[in-house]
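Researcher: Here's the sequence for the chain we discussed earlier.
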Amino acid sequence: MIANYGYKDGSGEYYISIDTDQCIDCAAGRACLGACPKQMFEIITDDYDDEVACIKEANRRTLAFDCADCKPAAGHDSLPCTDACTPGAVRHSW
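Model: Thanks. This is the structure I predict for it:
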């Protein structure tokens, strides 16, 4: 299942998507938790009793600002959260 966290406003769509099927089998030991400088990721138990990563409620409406340090408007080569996620479960929409 793909879980989408974020929002859409007049400036664009800002979502972080987490493929929970890939997240369950994380071989990196939930490295996304420590990779994010803003500590936006947390582990929750989903509806199927699996432990998966998600974006904290407090950050879901401010992703464009919270991710700005890692993702400047001028472009980026890589992101700490996507690099740390070896299963490839974390994706950004913008």
